[in-house]
Amino acid sequence: MRSGQILWPTDFSETAAHALRYAIEMANLYHVGLKILHVVEQPIGDENYMILAITPEELAKSMEEAAATKMQALLEGLKTELPITTLIRRGDPVDQILEEANGKDVGMVVIASHGRTGLSHFLHTNVAEAVANGAKCPVLVVK
Q1: For the chain, how far is it from start to end, CA to CA, in angstroms?
Q2: How far apart, in whole angstroms, are the C-alpha atoms of residue 91 and residue 29?
Q3: pTM summary value
Q4: pLDDT of 56-95, one tens digit each?
Q5: Which CATH number covers residue 24?
Q6: Number of domains into which the chain is organized
Q7: Rounded distance, CA 34 to CA 88, Å?
Q8: Residue 59: domain span
């Protein structure tokens, strides 16, 4: 029996929303809480090039605020009595998800896969695959 929370990393996509149903089902099955994580990737830029009207730090802060708004809307739409924890982190999605997944209070990760194949699979980082390979707890990958 699982005693740790169910971690559901989200990018607020439809695919991630589909995985949320499985995360809630697993949390209810094991009578544990749900932890929702969104990772904002750090924008890359060099102020010396004068290309950006704002600094990468300002852009990241704006992205975090937008994510917080989306997270609040998501929570308002959930119809569950589960205890829910939300986190918004900045950095590499794989690193941040694995840091949280390998913490003491996570018993399972439920993550969406965007299902890329062929050339697209090689050109884009497969977050779900990296998390499944690096997590110490069980990982459910939802297509």
Answers
A1: 25
A2: 32
A3: 0.84
A4: 788 888 889 999 999 999 989 888 889 999 999 999 999 9
A5: 3.40.50.620
A6: 1
A7: 14
A8: 5-142
